[in-house]
Design a protein that fits this description.
The complex is a heterodimer of chains A (282) and B (263). Chain A has 282 residues and is mainly α. Chain A has one domain: MetI-like (MetI-like fold, Orthogonal Bundle). Chain A is built from 12 helices and no strands. Chain B has one domain: Rossmann fold. Helices cover 34% and strands 23% of the residues of chain B. Chain B has 7 helices and 10 strands. Chain B has a 6-stranded mixed beta sheet with strand order 6-7-8-3-9-10, sandwiched between helices. Chain B has a 4-stranded antiparallel beta sheet with strand order 2-1-4-5, with helices on one face. In chain B, α3 packs across α4 and α6 crosses α7. The longest helix of chain B is centred in the last third of the chain and has 23 residues. Classes of the chains: A mainly alpha (282), B alpha/beta (263).
Chain lengths: 282, 263
């Protein structure tokens, strides 16, 4: 056997990927494995429900799941829950949009141009050291107590992770791939479009997700500090009127929309990130 | 014709990487540049490719001075450097951005067929083996039909089997349009299998120490006596190049001994 055919044979066998495991085990892993994570919370909820039903505890400050569920359904039926959720969602959307837009422009400029980076980055890093909540009094003085100050706070929260993520991603683009672009004589615009953009996209998506997470954190902070509507208002309302079930219902709503919006980002980015060489869940 | 006229390179930090190299390469000629690490052979290749222009002297291709990447010059790097976000076919067509979609598709398909990877057209680069990825990289460089193809230790990261396979494959591809090949390597066998002419370089600063014609018919039998003879000539030239630099007391003494240690 000649060397060449041997090599071909070796390559041929090493690359024949065989899907491992029958379809049944795939279905199992698809549903049963995530379900494992539910075992602990569901058990705890059932135990608490049982304890309250048996009269061993009143459940007045820590209402059992059935009461929370009833409150949740009640709030949903009157449309209160949707109204508050939509308002909070709108605030997050506005703050996130502004924060991402500004962070993307400045982050891209600072990542691309050393001059811009030297000019802006020290100041931004300095500002980053300030806990964002500390801005609230100033924002209220400047922007009033209504929407503008809340949106500004959320935008500030979103700005930093997106700025840092994008700038870092641009700086760490593989020099060797940039050189491929140069070897093929790409113009600056082509270089950005064909090399830099796709290269920074994975890190950018991650920074958007952490930015969104912070956005949800700051919307609560903003709404706790004074709002007449929104999920944060529901929290305060529940506290002042002594309705713990309402607080927990609002928290659940936060969790649902928070997770849903995060999932939207993942879903929107997925078609552009199929190429990523990552460990995928089996 | 590719002409190097007293090409030298001194980096801004004062490192004198390349002495004064003059070389004329005929169209269709295959030249291998061999030498130990740090002898400036990659620097030389990057100067010819216009990636890191020479600081002294000139590089001209058909009378045109090269100071930045040129469409008639293709480059294959040590790593495949495929763009991970493009399917294999799009990687091959990367240098055809200015052509019509139809022409691009045709030439990419032809190139993939030529390197035997038609069935990999729609997979991601991460799904390729090292040898396949480097074949795609060669296809990508050849698709724009360069007059000169520069190869910077293109097979050094591959195992011995794949390496020999790809050397034969490269020669096979070369017969299509017979571009000038300029190959940097530290593998003596590779130089002899491929090249018409082997330039032996010596370091600090990099310059041509010896030039050896390899006048063997292709395909070259790696087991033949003539092959062995050429190999001995090159190895001894490499040895001598290092001996001299050692007696000139400008390198560590351990670099002075034996063929086994020349790199």
């Amino acid at each position: 056997m000649s060397l060449v055919t041997m090599t071909v044979a070796v390559e041929g066998t090493s690359n024949t990927a065989v899907p491992v495991g029958p379809a049944v085990s795939n279905r199992w892993s698809r549903w049963a494995r995530p379900a494992l994570g539910l075992v602990l919370p569901v058990t705890l909820a059932l135990v608490w429900e049982f304890v309250v039903r048996m009269g061993w505890a009143t459940g007045r400050l820590a209402p059992p799941p059935s009461v929370i569920f009833a409150t949740f359904v009640d709030l949903a039926r009157t449309g209160e829950l949707q109204r508050h959720t939509l308002i909070t969602l709108a605030r997050v959307a506005a703050g996130f949009g502004i924060g991402v837009a500004v962070a993307t422009i400045i982050g891209a400029a600072a990542g691309y141009s050393p001059l811009v980076r030297r000019l802006l980055d020290p100041t931004i890093q300095g500002l980053r050291a300030i806990p964002s909540i500390a801005w609230v009094p100033l924002f209220i003085l400047w922007l009033g107590i209504f929407e503008a100050s809340k949106v500004a706070l959320i935008a500030v929260g979103v700005f930093f992770p997106v700025y840092l993520g994008l700038m870092g991603a641009i700086q760490s683009v593989d020099r060797k791939l940039v050189e491929v672009g140069r070897a093929f004589r790409l113009t600056d615009v082509e270089m950005v479009r064909r090399i830099l953009l796709p290269a920074v996209l994975p890190a950018y998506v991650i920074s958007l997700r952490s930015g969104l997470g912070l956005g949800w954190m700051f919307v609560i902070a903003a709404e706790l500090m004074g709002a007449s509507e929104g999920l944060g208002y529901l929290l305060i309302d529940g506290q002042q009127l002594g309705k713990p079930a309402e607080i927990i219902a609002a928290i659940v709503a936060f969790a649902i929309v928070g997770k849903a919006t995060d999932w939207l980002i993942v879903l929107a980015a997925a078609p552009f990130l199929r190429w990523e060489d990552v460990v995928r869940p089996e | 014709m590719l002409v190097l006229d007293r090409v030298g390179k001194t980096y801004p930090n004062g490192v004198h990487a390349l002495g004064s190299i003059s070389l004329a390469v005929e169209p269709g000629e295959i030249v291998a540049v061999i030498g130990g690490s740090g002898c400036g052979k990659s620097t030389l290749l990057r100067a010819i490719g216009g990636l890191d222009p020479a600081s002294e002297g000139t590089v001209t291709l058909d009378g045109e001075r090269i100071t930045r990447p040129h469409e008639k010059i293709g480059i294959v790097f040590q790593e495949p450097r495929l763009l991970p976000w493009l399917k294999v076919a799009d990687n091959v067509g990367f240098g055809l951005g200015d052509r019509s979609k139809v022409e691009r598709a045709q030439r990419v398909a032809a190139a993939l067929n030529r390197v035997g990877l038609t069935d990999k057209a729609t997979v991601w680069p991460r799904e390729l083996s090292g040898g396949q990825a480097q074949r795609v990289a060669i296809a990508r460089a050849l698709v724009p039909r360069p007059e000169v193809l520069l190869l910077d230790e293109p097979f050094s990261a591959l195992d011995a089997f794949t390496r020999a396979d790809l050397q034969d494959h490269l020669l096979d591809l070369w017969t299509d349009a017979r571009p000038t090949l300029l190959l940097v390597t530290h593998d003596v066998d590779e130089a002899i299998v491929l090249a018409d002419r082997v330039m032996v370089m010596r370091p600090r600063p990099g310059r041509v120490f010896d030039e050896i014609e390899v006048d063997l018919p292709r395909p070259r039998d790696r087991q033949s006596a003539a092959f062995d003879f050429a190999k001995r000539r090159i190895l001894s030239a490499l040895d001598r190049s290092l001996d001299r630099s050692a007696t000139a007391a400008e390198s560590e003494p351990k670099a002075a001994t034996g063929a086994a240690m020349w790199w």
